[in-house]
Design goal:
By secondary structure, this protein is mostly helical. It has four helices and no strands.
């Protein structure tokens, strides 16, 4: 049997804790935070990237469908590719609808 006493566990914990505290208190140089401008991305560039990813997903689904017709892809691969394309297109449509609604809300605001 394993001989573990509470005293041994407490001593091991205390030794480990004191070693970690000493290490944690050691002064280390800290890198300055990144400027806010570098962290921000252009919204238009973000939308362009997402649209190109959507097109790529749809193209993959088309290629999988064509490969299935040629007998080179399984049904599972086709279904996965088509479902990924469907979800991606639903997301794009939802984002478009929200953007249109936000624009309409802005145009209805009193000045």
């Amino acid at each position: 049997m394993l001989d573990i006493s509470i005293g041994r566990v407490a001593a091991a914990y205390a030794a480990n804790r004191s070693a970690n505290v000493g290490e944690a208190l050691a002064l280390r140089p800290v890198a300055p935070p990144a400027p806010a401008a570098a962290a921000e991305t252009d919204f238009g560039a973000f939308i362009d990237e997402q649209i190109s990813r959507t097109v790529q997903t749809v193209q993959k689904a088309e290629k999988a469908s064509l490969a299935a017709v040629a007998g080179k892809a399984s049904t599972q691969e086709v279904v996965q590719a088509v479902m990924a394309a469907e979800v991606t297109l639903q997301t794009v449509v939802a984002i478009r609808d929200r953007m249109v609604q936000a624009y309409q809300d802005l145009t209805r605001m009193p000045i």
